[in-house]
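Researcher: Sequence recovery benchmark, item below. Answer with residues only.
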């Protein structure tokens, strides 16, 4: 596929980062190892799509999927990419939660990606996205639980008569134990992000709740120069399921993409992925920044 042209007249560049964790370090999660089966396959298959579209990819599998390696890869990409370029980020693994210590309400939860040696808090992810230059396009595919907006909705008890297979949700008891054992670390992460943002902390829940209406109304969108599209594995109150070769969400992404034969925009692509999943797992789509033109583009096009 031909690359688009950036404002400088040169061809746009595409970089991608794919993280797939079939387990986590018990030392970082209160003795829980969180075995899954298909997350490494998910990361490899997403990297294959990226390669087919001319992107340079980094793949971090299980023990390589550490906080330091992920953050280093994101920061390296943020330094390299310019207006018109594309950053494609995928995560397949468990979703978790830690108590929000920077918001005004004590019952809020920060959603996380369960990396190998510790959780990446959603505040951190959004802050890293804010490092990218104006006009960079960022596509995030999150095949994990609590991934509707990678925000803070507490899922209701699951009806186990409707859900079978391996869930990608960190068990609540494990989440509580992990936070208790590493409380100072996770509290400091949140305070550090709030301090680095250089402004008074806003309640991310009330901000993100308005994203579907108008991204420009939120403080997060105001601080983000890049155009971001997130297509997630499920709504915040649902569970993303693991599989034997691919997670249920990633399986439908691959099916809709059809080896590069898909023709349509991101909104239609999301609808096609959603149509292939059961009502118990309904993928979400939301945007940050000025993403209207980005949404109209062919998926994965550099």
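Model:
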């Amino acid at each position: 596929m031909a690359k688009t042209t950036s404002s400088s007249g040169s061809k746009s560049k595409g970089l991608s980062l794919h993280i797939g964790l079939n387990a986590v370090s018990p030392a970082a999660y209160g003795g829980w190892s969180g075995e899954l089966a298909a997350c490494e396959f998910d990361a490899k298959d997403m990297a294959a799509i990226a390669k087919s579209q001319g992107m340079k990819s980094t793949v971090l599998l299980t023990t390589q999927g550490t906080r330091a390696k992920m953050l280093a890869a994101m920061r390296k990409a943020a330094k390299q990419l310019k207006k018109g370029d594309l950053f494609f980020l995928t995560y397949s693994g468990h979703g978790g939660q830690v108590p929000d210590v920077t918001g005004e309400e004590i019952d809020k939860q920060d959603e996380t990606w369960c990396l190998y040696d510790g959780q990446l808090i959603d505040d951190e992810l959004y802050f890293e996205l804010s490092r990218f230059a104006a006009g960079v396009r960022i596509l995030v595919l999150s095949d994990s639980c609590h991934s509707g907006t990678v925000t803070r909705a507490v899922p209701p008890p699951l009806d186990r008569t409707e859900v079978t297979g391996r869930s990608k949700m960190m068990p609540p008891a494990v989440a509580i134990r992990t936070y208790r054992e590493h409380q100072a670390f996770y509290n400091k992460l949140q305070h550090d992000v709030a301090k680095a943002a250089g402004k008074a902390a806003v309640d991310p829940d009330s901000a993100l709740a308005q994203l579907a209406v108008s991204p420009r109304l939120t403080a997060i969108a105001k601080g983000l120069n890049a155009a971001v599209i997130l297509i997630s594995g499920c709504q915040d109150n649902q569970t993303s399921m693991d599989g034997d070769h691919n997670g249920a969400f990633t399986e439908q992404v691959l099916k809709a993409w059809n080896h590069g034969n898909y023709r349509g925009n991101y909104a239609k692509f999301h609808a096609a992925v959603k149509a292939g999943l059961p009502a118990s797992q309904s993928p979400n789509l939301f945007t940050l920044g000025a993403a209207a033109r980005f949404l109209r583009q062919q998926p994965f096009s550099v």
